[in-house]
Structure formats: C-alpha cells, structure tokens
Amino acid sequence: MSKSTPPSFEMVVLTTCDTHDEAALIRYGLKLRQIPSDLSVPRASLLPTRTPRPIEVRVPRESLERAQGAIQYIAGAVHGDGVAITPDFRCAICGYDMTGLGSQTICPECGTDLASESAKKMARRRLPPDA
Ligand SMILES: [Zn+2]
Questions:
Q1: Residue 30: which H helix or E strand, with range?
Q2: How far apart are CA 21 and CA 53, in angstroms?
Q3: Which pLDDT score, from 0 to 100, does residue 130 have?
Q4: What's the CA-to-centroid distance between 31 and ligand 1, angstroms?
Q5: What is the distance between the terminal CA atoms of the chain, rounded to a whole angstrom?
Q6: How far is the CA of 20 from the centre of ligand 1 (A)?
Q7: Fewer CB within 10 Å, N- or C-terminus of the chain?
Q8: What is the average per-residue pLDDT within 106-120?
Q9: Four-residue CA torsion sign, 108, 83, 15, 6
Q10: What CA–CA distance (Å, rounded) separates 37 from 57?
Q11: What's the DSSP call for residue 44?
C-alpha cells in the first residue's frame, strides 16, 4: 500500500442536476471521455425531504473546458430532447464518433440530422441501462 497523496487538481462545478439518475448518466459520459468527476450533494438534513436537491457534478479544473464541450451531448441524451448522440458521443444511427464536432447535429458519416425526432427516438432506445 502506497501512501495516498491528495489530488493535485482542484475540483470545480461543471453542472447541477436534480436527480441522481441524471448525475450518474452525466458522469458516465464524462468517464467515457476519461474525464474524472465527483459529486457534491448538500447535506440532506438541512433540506425539506421532498425538495429536489441540486446535485453538483464536479470535474478537475484542468478538464473543465473539455467537459463543458461534452456536457451538451450528455445533457441531450439525459433529457431526450437534445440530439441523438449517445453518452459516448457517437451518432446514434451509425456509431460515428462525434467527439469534437461541437454543436453540429448532422452526422458527417450517415448524414442523419441527429436533432430529428426519429433520430432521438433511436438514441433513447440505445441509452445504457441504469447502472
Ligand atoms: Zn451517423
């Protein structure tokens, strides 16, 4: 066992979620991009039971820019109303790697508009099962 050293990076808030399911899917997407993340949850005892609690998803400051580029795809998959890009940033129709294409919604490989309803339907079917 080696002596553990404190992480050298500072964690900063990437986004906040209302549910653990949403936070888990966002973290899954980040993990697939090799971006480490953690959660910061306010102490439950301080909040009314039925109030949705903002769950903070945090990433290292050095990864923040990359994570912010990724989050729009992940959030789209979470809410089902963004674009049909899988949590691992591939075209939901043909699997083309959409990493780094910014907010583009037309897949350069198969030409599908990933913002279309039919494409989004397919993306939802391909979401990973609950972890
Ligand atoms: Zn495609």
A1: helix 20-32
A2: 12
A3: 46
A4: 22
A5: 29
A6: 30
A7: N
A8: 86
A9: negative
A10: 7
A11: G
The residue behind tokens 């949403």 is 22
pTM above 0.90, yes or no: no
Do residues 38 and 58 touch, judged by C-beta distance below 8 A?
Answer: yes
pLDDT at residue 115 in the model:
83
**For residue 88, what are its two tokens?**
């691992």
In the block, residue with structure tokens 């906040």: 16
If you measure from the C-alpha of residue 131 to the centroid of ligand 1, how many angstroms do you get, rounded to a whole number? 26
pLDDT at 20: 81
Q: Which residues pair with 97 in a beta bridge?
A: 90
The pair of structure tokens assigned to 1 is: 């066992």
Tens digit of pLDDT for each residue in 54-77?
A: 889 999 999 999 998 888 767 666
Cα of 61 from ligand 1 centre, angstroms: 32
